[in-house]
Write a structure and sequence with these properties.
By secondary structure, the chain is α+β, with helices and mostly antiparallel strands. 18% of the residues lie in helices and 40% in strands. A 13-stranded mixed sheet has the order 2-1-3-4-5-6-7-8-9-10-11-12-13. Strand 5, helix 2 and strand 6 form a beta-alpha-beta unit. The longest helix has 11 residues. The radius of gyration is 19 Å and the shape is globular.
């Protein structure tokens, strides 16, 4: 078994560094695969994530691994070289209350995240999407722009962080034709990809794959 410590930004840190933080995660890897992830705050378990790789029943996993905190069973799907992590979320009493999805690109960048109720209806106000371009940022792990949406699924704002701006100095874009055209000119992305970011839906991902392939 191998222990992997991460900070709130998903960066790998040492155990000594983790002990100096209030909040961090610990991943338990077996034979090269993450099996369990613990989210801690001041040493107290806040959430436990169990990675499901086979057809083991959810109730069996809950009976064995649930520890009286928020709990998620994570399943992974692949769309070509994109990875979708789907969490089945349970409360501290083991009652299922919804889903959360996170989509990652081939470089392991978080492209989009969303929260859905137990009927799989999304709460768009919790959805966020990120666009990365390592040629336009000094840090390849930093996104170039981020999108947020309102509860009805409309785009609230696009936060543009070119030239390594911090969040407070972000330039804001709306989904007006003038703003869309300006942002496409700045980034060089296609209309199809821009439409993906204006939409609140994290999947389907075909526009992402085509753009990455240069189509």
């Amino acid at each position: 078994m191998k222990l992997i410590y991460k900070d709130l930004f998903d960066k790998v840190i040492t155990a000594e560094q983790a002990m100096k933080l209030d909040r961090y995660t610990v991943q338990y890897a077996y034979n090269g695969k993450i099996k369990i992830e613990e989210e801690l705050d001041k040493g107290k378990m806040q959430r436990l994530i169990y990675y499901r790789y086979d057809d083991e029943a959810h109730q069996t996993i809950l009976d064995r691994a649930h520890k009286g905190c928020f709990f998620a069973i994570r399943e992974t799907q692949y769309f070509g070289d994109y990875r979708l992590e789907k969490d089945f979320d349970y409360d501290s009493k083991g009652i299922f209350f919804g889903y959360s999805n996170a989509l990652y690109d081939p470089d392991n960048n978080l492209v989009g995240s969303e929260v859905l109720d137990k009927n799989e209806a999304p709460d768009y106000s919790c959805t966020q999407k990120y666009y990365f371009d390592k040629n336009m940022t000094t840090d390849p792990d930093e996104y170039l722009f981020r999108c947020e949406y309102n509860i009805g699924g409309g785009l609230n704002d696009i936060y543009y962080l070119a030239n390594d701006r911090c969040e407070q100095d972000a330039e804001y874009f709306s989904d007006s034709p003038a703003c869309v055209e300006k942002l496409m000119g700045r980034t060089g992305i296609s209309k199809a990809l821009m439409d993906y970011y204006i939409s609140p839906n994290v999947t389907p991902i075909e526009p992402l794959r085509k753009y990455r392939a240069g189509a």
